[in-house]
Design goal:
34% of the residues lie in helices and 20% in strands. By secondary structure, the protein is of the alpha+beta class. It comes from Chitinivibrio alkaliphilus ACht1.
Length: 148
Amino acid sequence: MNKSFFSLLTALLALLFLGCSPEKTPEEPQTYEDGQYRGVFIDGSDIQVNIQFTLENDHVTEASFRHLRRDEDYNIDAEEEPWASVIQQYHEALNHLVGKDITEHLEDLYTPEAIVTTEVDGYTSATIRSNKLISAIRDGLNRGVYSY
């Protein structure tokens, strides 16, 4: 057989496979089951962020911290500066999602300066690490519904 026959056969096979490929459709946005979710961000062996949130039709209806810790001087109940303002920033960031679609607004947390208004402690310049919060939320979504 000659070279032109193989070229023609290759071209026909390519057209056949290209013509049979399914049409690409736009991906539908992720949806989540209604219910309560729990997620954590762990660094080393320390749980730093542990949250609980409730979804209804992908909208956050409730959100709270079960645990928030950096070291021995930083916990969810700290009332002394500089940690009190940092904790308030975490609460503001998490509460920003309440009433919003998680599939559309989780990315808002990548720019906490746009949603958090609590002043940063001027002495330490302490501020939140919103990626920890995002990680804990994604962990909860990946784990699935904790309770209905």
